[in-house]
């Protein structure tokens, strides 16, 4: 939760607290401390939920999908992978000069579902083609192939 939302929650909680506690004979210092503790509790609970949601959203895997039929489009591939989990993105590569598909692409899905998709779809037949599905190499950190130095 960002700071602006926190202050809005704090102001709302303070106004409600003033209204509720004005009916009771409680010193204003005690009322202020109760309100501050309540607002802090609300902030901590909501920030923990949002941080856990962000972590689950970040745990994705990009899969390389090779030997795709040239007539397959993004929605076809998304439907194929959706059987194994949520699909966040599909990107099919095209030739820059001709604009035609190159027969491979990338699918982004949750890390937990990616291995199931690889197991089920790698070497499977799709539109009369045998798919190649694996975890994509990270272009920012290409894995060094130590076998070329042997």
Automatic annotation (TrEMBL):
InterPro entries in the record: Euk_RNA-bind_prot (IPR050502), Nucleotide-bd_a/b_plait_sf (IPR012677), RBD_domain_sf (IPR035979), RRM_dom (IPR000504)
Keywords: Membrane, RNA-binding, Transmembrane, Transmembrane helix
Signal peptide: none
Keyword Transit peptide: no
GO molecular function: RNA binding
Transmembrane segments: 6-22, 29-47
RRM domain segment(s): 61-138
Stored PROSITE patterns: RRM
Keyword Transmembrane helix set for record: yes
Record protein name field: RNA recognition motif. (A.k.a. RRM, RBD, or RNP domain)
Species: Vibrio gazogenes DSM 21264 = NBRC 103151
